[in-house]
Amino acid sequence: MSGREQKHWTDDEVDALLEMAGGMPVASIAAELGRTVCSVQIKASRLGVSLDMSAAVWCPSCSTWRTGLDSNGRCPACRMRSLADAMEARWRNETPPDAVSQPAPAPVAKRPPLAVVRAEEAAAVERHRARYNAAKMRLSRARRSGGD
Description:
By secondary structure, this protein is mostly helical.
């Protein structure tokens, strides 16, 4: 380590770095924080924050700098929010104000009556029990005859 004493980052400085990252040049961030460019780059790297301004794109829906927009001009967070709103509105049988167009759902096959389903489940359970009891009986016979 060099002979200089390191200046520790305060929570306010880290918050300011996170706020300015990608929105202004590194030299301006360093001047604003009273740090060296190298110090700002190292801290951003340790925090996993990109300082690349070319990667930042303004999302008009949420008024935030984001890493990319979809074909509708929304960031992934806004797209997920609109999909969630559309699903919630579908549950409530409403139409959301900015619903994302979705393909029509495939027709749902008609379910069999509950009595038929229960009878099929009971038959499956009985088949399982029969196989289990047969295996149990074979093991019991093998143990009695001196096998394993």
